[in-house]
Design brief:
Helices cover 8% and strands 47% of the residues. By secondary structure, it is mostly beta strands. The protein has a 15-stranded mixed beta sheet that branches.
């Protein structure tokens, strides 16, 4: 380096240091010293070094207390920044600040022998005859030709002989070819005041005799040549977006911002543009910054500039560049303002290694816009925009970071602080997913498009604060401050989605912002999926109808559309998108109309798309498209299932062809019906006790599975749900229980139902009709009663009483077996068609009872003659369990039959109640004896002797049978003389054994009555004795029946 000189002029604060390169001070003429070339022909430069032009200072972050939207579309949507609340109080102390490095303007001076520059201030400030020396990068035109772009050098630190302006802090800018500077060579004074000396950027173009200054319509191009800490080999990522400036903390620009601006304005070879839709690669053409004002002064610079870019991707794994013919490989296509260079695919076959395009695309940059306004070295307004996506919906969005100087009152003094706030802008409100690489040929996302109506958020919480994902990631949940509580809450976006059937439905929910180039995408996607117990990402749908798979166009039934309460999306990694992921349906909280209509309650269940459906779609099988995440149980009352069977299901999947299905999902998808999977043992039963899995053979779902189908009629004004079940019946193994079901070859089981619900503003109860029919079967109760049924028919409609029609087989209706075989002879007298919807039909809220009580004509059974015999039969069907109970009796306790054999007579009754659990009650009584009388006119008398037994068996609350047996002997006589004196004697002896108390008791009574004329006297002598274990007294367990009794007992001994 050569001669140096510093110029300081107090009048206008001029302060420049001038360095001469290949120039020396010629003092041969002391009166007129001058700078002349030291070596004629070698490059000569004048380097004018300015004091630092930029100061970086601490900024204070401010978030908004604007309440999040309620979910309704905003009245006005604008991309402009929202208003911010008043500035929060900040400390009234000096903020942290750092001053930037010096700037220099370098001019190339002619180095011929005639060059002579007068050594005076005015001459040294006359730059009109000099050529501005700029970096070769800065010399590349704003819109270069292909040759110029290829010939552009790589990014390197500027040489000392290149013009460099550090404005803003730590970012080195340079004007391009055609730039010039305008300034005063002498102080400019007005009324005794001098202007601050300054140099303004202008162009060499002349208009009206004056150089043209940059403007908003004709800005001057600037390229960023270097930034503090920039490394051309570094792969820039989004992981330092919110990093503070050393010694300052939060600042208007982060180090990664400045590095990206260098790449965006000067990287001609290390980055490529990738079309997100076609994945086509093209050369990235750096675009210079557009400058409206650039002014340098001794006290700092003025800058008003903006830049906009389509962020490119870093090129990885570049190969060596062989010779090539660029005119063959490249072809220009007009692409609006970008003038991107396109590659001829055919030419690439011969030229596989193209400079600037070799290798795979790496992480993209994310800075897409930079606006900077600085005054006298101080930042006034800075806006930096980072591109990214909203995780969940994959909408392209941008994070806007605004730092502006604002006045606020601190202890009565107006102080201008830098205040920073951020907000999110949706760049593309509507996304068409048919153009996105959705997994499984688009089946993993049952929506065709989503339009976000919330396009601008209020100022959000600090992305590096509580809303951050953490772990080095720059992704964050969009959060704001709730003004009511002062706490951070998720900002709620509103959107409108269109599903596969064309339904449009509204949703609201939070979203995560993921910047492009996120290097910790795994952490971001994990946080999106797991935060809030996995429910933070839920979109509220509020019961709107959503279609999850393409409906069957040939069927009126729509088994793929459900009322949906919430939808949870997942982010599926994808290398074909700029953000590295695409949305996919994770789960949905839905209400299945067929289930709700049958059960009469609102039931929300979680579903997920079936893996087989995702892999192959509707290929064969039953059209299974979704899995029910946690089995959905359907439990029928007998009245809901036709009064016969309770086909309780544990639904496992949803089918387009058959609606909800149960059992193993894989088998259901293949159309296979396994009764053990569909109706697990003990869950679905016939008559509340016979497992359906024992009755039904394996087969196909189309033949044997219940079909729940929901359709909309009358233009959607009526919802109709039908159940249709007509399975083939197999030969069951006799169950290990008191009831045995016997199938016959022509046995049939039919259960059908129809539920109609009118959709309207006022709720109305649905119209329901359920019908069940079981034919040609028999049931054996407790191995003592066999009943043969020709048909068991049950119909229930709301608003009408249920109808039951039970027809016994005419040839063999009832048979008594085992211990009751002794009364089997009586069954021959039971008329056919006894049961049915007749006059003894009794219905209440819990059961239906149908039966008859009829008198039979006198019967002769062996040597016995029976009179006053009545037959009482009834069948009771509870609505809840469906377990039938049979009530059968000959005569009744209060009206016994009469029995006669020769001269002897007696009477009795028989009553039996059995259900599916066995004998519920059994009563039988029989009395037999003889009577003799003698009348001699003067005296008369009679004697009698009778003996009888009573047997009872009842089921207690624990399900155990307790028996009681009683026997008695009754004898006596009476004598009357002339009607004046009469004597009667009665002796009664009885014994009873109670199985419940394990106690036998006996009682003997002697009664004597004497009457003489008008006087009478009677005496009765009774004696009782009990025998048995512990005397038959209650046990300790029987006495202490409840916890309260035990507490009282224990307290007595405390």
């Amino acid at each position: 380096m050569g001669h140096r000189v510093r110029i300081v002029r107090p009048d206008d604060l001029l302060n420049l240091e001038i360095e001469c390169v290949n120039l020396r001070l010629d003092l041969a003429n002391v009166a007129n010293p001058a700078l002349v070339p030291e070596t004629v022909g070698d490059p000569a430069f004048l380097i004018y070094t300015f004091p630092p032009q930029a100061i970086a200072e601490q900024a204070y972050f401010e978030s908004s207390t604007v309440p999040p939207p309620t979910g309704e579309p905003p009245l006005a949507r604008t991309p402009h920044p929202p208003e911010v609340d008043d500035v929060k109080p900040v400390p009234g102390v000096a903020v942290h600040a750092r001053i930037g490095g010096p700037s220099r303007l370098v001019f190339r001076v002619p180095s011929d022998a005639s060059t002579r520059i007068p050594y005076a201030i005015e001459s040294l400030l006359d730059w009109s005859g000099f050529e501005l020396s700029i970096s070769p990068l800065a010399a590349v035109p704003a819109k270069p030709t292909a040759e110029e772009a290829i010939a552009a050098p790589a990014i390197t630190q500027p040489e000392p002989t290149h013009t460099v302006i550090e404005l803003p802090y730590h970012l080195q800018l340079s004007p391009g070819v055609g730039a010039a500077w305008r300034h005063a060579r002498t102080p400019v004074s007005h009324g005794g005041w001098s202007e601050l000396w300054h140099a303004r950027l202008v162009t060499r173009a002349i208009e009206n005799g004056e150089p043209v200054e940059p403007s908003i319509d004709a800005p001057a191009p600037l390229r960023a040549l270097w930034a503090e800490g920039f490394d051309p080999a570094e792969t820039l990522t989004a992981n330092d977006l919110f990093a503070g400036e050393p010694g300052i903390g939060r600042a208007a620009m982060a180090a990664v911002d400045r590095k990206q601006i260098v790449a965006l304005t000067s990287a001609f070879h290390d980055y490529i543009s990738v079309d997100e839709r076609s994945s086509e690669q093209s050369t990235f053409e750096p675009t210079p910054i557009q400058c409206e004002r650039l002014m340098l002064s001794p006290l700092g610079g003025w800058l008003k500039s903006h830049g906009e870019w389509d962020p490119p991707c870093r090129r990885l794994g570049r190969a060596a560049d062989p010779p090539f013919d660029w005119q063959t490989v490249f072809r220009r296509e007009p692409v609006e303002a970008e003038h991107a260079m396109r590659i001829d695919p055919q030419a690439l076959k011969d030229h596989p290694f193209v400079p600037g395009l070799g290798g795979e695309p790496g992480p993209p940059l994310n800075l897409s816009q930079w606006v900077h306004v600085a005054s006298q070295g101080r930042d006034h307004y800075v806006r930096v925009v980072y591109d990214g996506c909203l995780c969940g919906t994959d909408h392209p969005a941008s994070l806007v970071k605004v730092t502006e100087r604002r006045f606020c009152d601190v202890n009565g003094t107006a102080v201008a602080y830098l205040v920073q706030y951020m907000y999110v802008v949706v760049r593309q409100p509507e996304v068409d997913y048919s153009t996105r690489p959705i997994a499984h040929d688009g089946r993993s996302l049952p929506f065709t498009r989503i339009r976000l109506t919330t396009t601008v958020t209020p100022p959000i919480d600090d992305p590096a604060g509580a809303s951050a994902v953490g772990g080095g990631s720059s992704s964050f949940w969009v959060m704001v401050t709730d003004p009511a509580t002062g706490k951070l809450v998720d900002f709620v976006f509103h959107g409108v989605a269109t599903d596969l059937a064309g339904h449009r439905w509204n949703f609201t929910g939070p979203l995560m912002f993921v910047p492009s180039g996120e290097q910790h995408l795994d952490l971001a996607l994990a946080a999106y999926f797991n935060d809030g117990g996995g429910r933070r990402r839920a979109f509220s749908v509020s019961g709107q109808m959503v279609t999850y798979a393409a409906p069957d166009p040939t069927s009126a039934a729509d088994n793929t559309t459900f009322a949906t309460e919430a939808i949870l999306l997942a982010a599926s990694p994808s290398a074909q998108t700029s953000c590295g992921f695409v949305p996919a349906l994770d789960t949905a909280d839905v209400r299945i109309p067929a289930v709700e209509q049958l059960l009469g309650v609102n039931t929300v269940t979680s579903i997920a798309l079936n893996q087989s459906f995702l892999d192959t779609g509707f290929v064969g099988g039953t059209g299974v498209f979704a899995d029910i995440r946690s089995g959905l149980g359907i439990k029928f009352d007998a009245s809901q299932a036709g009064g016969i069977a309770t086909p309780n299901l544990n639904l496992s999947c949803l089918s387009r062809d058959h609606g909800p299905l149960a059992g193993d999902i894989g088998k259901a998808a293949a159309g296979a019906f396994d009764p053990g999977e569909f109706f697990p043992k003990g869950t679905a039963q016939l008559f509340g006790v016979v497992d359906l899995l024992d009755l039904l053979p394996a087969g196909t779902i189309a033949d044997n599975a219940p079909k729940l189908v929901t359709v909309r009629e009358n233009g959607g004004k009526k919802i109709v749900t039908t159940i249709d079940w007509q399975p083939a019946m197999g030969n069951p193994d006799p169950p290990a229980g008191p009831l045995t079901f016997h199938r016959e070859p022509d046995s049939t089981l039919i259960i059908t139902g129809r539920i109609e619900q009118i959709v309207g503003t006022s709720p109305t109860p649905p119209a329901t009709r359920m019908h069940g029919e079981l034919t040609n079967f028999s049931i054996e109760f407790a191995e003592v009663v066999h009943i043969g049924f020709a048909a068991f028919d049950f119909t229930s409609e709301n608003g009408r009483k249920p109808s039951i029609d039970v027809r016994l087989k005419p040839d063999d209706p009832i048979a008594f077996l085992g211990a009751l075989a002794f009364i089997d002879e009586l069954r021959k007298h039971i008329p056919p068609g006894l049961f049915g919807d007749g006059p003894s039909l009794d219905i209440n809220a819990t059961r239906i009872r149908a039966g008859f009580g009829i008198a039979l004509p006198p019967l002769s059974v062996a040597v016995f003659a029976l009179r006053n015999v009545s037959l009482n039969t009834a069948l009771e069907l509870p609505f809840s369990s469906g377990q039938p109970a049979l009530d059968f009796g000959f005569s009744e306790r209060h009206h016994p039959f009469q029995l006669a054999v020769a001269l002897l007579g007696g009477g009795g009754f028989f009553h039996l109640q059995v259900d599916t659990a066995g004998i519920r009650q059994l009563e039988a009584a029989l009395e037999f004896g003889a009577v003799a009388a003698l009348d001699l006119f003067v005296a008369s008398g009679s004697v009698h002797i009778m003996a009888g037994i009573y047997f009872a068996m009842n089921r207690n609350a624990h399900g155990d049978l307790a028996a009681m047996l009683s026997g008695y002997l009754r004898c006596g006589g009476e004598l009357s003389v002339l009607g004046i004196i009469s004597i009667s004697v009665e002796f009664n002896l009885s014994f009873t054994y109670d199985d419940g108390t394990k106690k036998a008791s006996g009682r003997a009574t002697l009664s004597v009555e004497v009457e003489i004329a008008f006087f009478s006297k009677s005496i009765e002598l009774t004696v009782e004795r009990s025998f048995g274990r512990d005397g038959g007294d209650p046990t300790f367990e029987q006495l202490v029946e409840t916890p309260a009794v035990w507490g009282e007992y224990a307290g007595a001994f405390a």
